[in-house]
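To: structure desk
From: M.T.
Subject: fold request, one chain
Message: Could you run this one when you get a chance? Sequence is below, nothing fancy, just the single chain.
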Amino acid sequence: MQTYFANNSCNPIADQSEGKCGIGSYVQYAIDVPEDADVRAGLAFAEKNNIRLSFRNTGHESTNYDGPALKVQAGVRVGDVYDYLEKQGYMAIGGECPTLGQAGGYILAGGHAPTTSKLGLAADKILEIEGILASGESFTAAPDENQEIYWFLSGSGSAGTIAYIKSVIFKIFEDFP
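Reply: Done. Structure tokens follow.
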């Protein structure tokens, strides 16, 4: 039931007389954002029309890491990451559901996985996050760049409250049986 009440936009306790809860758990607006300008236009539209906005996507490491890594854009699914990396002899920490988005809430909220006991949480393997803040400002965040944004997003689970995440670079590992 969480998705139905996501963002408190269909709170069953609130006054429903204005009919704001008529489409069930589906969003009223969705924006395809292939370019930064599209994100900014969506932000401006939401602000102009007083629409509540939530960005969605289907111990940390040092900056001295020089091992293998993968950059994943928003919307790339865990199953696609697994399939790609398997062909290369690598693996990533990802969820059990292949349709889960790798670069969004999963990794930014911690990222528990079947391999967590051996490799740790996915959020602990984030090397860089690229996105657009709710203010419209583009950012790149890493342990040594925009540190406050990086640490807020790496495991907080609150990415959708401050930013649209365009991509995440994270550690990958040699595959094992």
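Reply (cont.): The longest helix spans residues 36-48. Let me know if you need anything else for the meeting.
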